[in-house]
Structures are given as C-alpha cells and as structure tokens.
Amino acid sequence: MKQSFKGAHHIAFATGDLERTIRFWRDLLRMRLIGAFGKSGYKQYFFEVSDRCAISFFEWKGVQPVHEKDPGREQTGPFVFDHIALEVQSEDELWELKDRLEHNGEWVSEVIDHGIIYSIYTFDPNGIALEFTYQKEGMQLQQNPLNYDKSPSPVASEGIEPQIALYPDSPNPTAKDNRRVYKGLISDYIK
Q1: What is the model's pTM?
Q2: Which phi and psi angles does 36 have, rounded to 5°?
C-alpha cells in the first residue's frame, strides 16, 4: 500500500537565543506563535508555516548559530541539513518579503529564477539557511514531475513511483488492542 502523508507536521531546530528567534520568525516573517511549551530546562516553541505545517525551536543553553553556508553548495564530512524552502502565495508576496527583510537590515539575495520557482535566500538568527519561493504557473512538481538528470543513478532510473515490493508491509500488523502509546514531554502541558 502506498503511504499517505499529509505533509510535514513540523520541522524542529534548536536555538540558544529564543528571544531573537521569536523576533525573527514571529515578527519579521509574520508567522503566528502557535505553541509555547516550557518549564525549567525545557522549552519548545512552534511557529505556523501553514494550516498543516510548523517550524519548531527547542531552546538549549549553549547552542550557537551555525556558520552560514550558501544553500546547495557542496560540503564534505558529517553533514545533515542544507536549507529549508518555504513557499509563499504569490510573486508579489515574495517581493514584499524581500523588501521587508532588506528594510529591516537582514541580508537577502536577489530574486533567482530556477525555472520552476522564483526564490530569495536569507539566514535566520541561528544561521539556518532559508529559501522563500513562489511556484511558477504550471510548474507544480507534484502534478508534473520532471527528470532532467542526464546521468541518473540506476535506482533513480527505476522511475518516480515507490518500489513497494522492495519494502513490503508487515504481514503481522500491530492489533489495535496491543497498541501502546507513551507519554512525551509536551503532554505534561496538555489537559
């Protein structure tokens, strides 16, 4: 059976400066602060990206901003994360965001035409590389997948659909009466 994901619920990062992080994400980017959970030694804050997706920050004392790295630039050694791309509703909104970032002293790139999207790039106070995009008309990859790789790997050459036979579903799914759910940190705050 094909998996049915709704999207990313949240993407979690860490910050050593929650105040600057709130100012940037809530006030400058204008994302609502939709969840604030904390007690001594633990804080996690959620900012609304869309009605189904959020960006989350843990506050960890001693965390320092990462060295700013241009998105898409090759790295060597241990590496996990390049950048996050957030889509805006219109081309006008992309330009308004660019103007607001510049007006408030934040570095922001010129608008780049990637063929399928227009993008601007900046960094948050934690050094996280951010791309803001506007989807060009008729270029929605989910409806019109594109493969312009002139030398795709053998696995990529198998096509766009999941190769379900390689990783079959369990023949013994957990019965409903055997399912156990364990308490997490945020559950202490929810009544």
Answers
A1: 0.84
A2: -135, 110
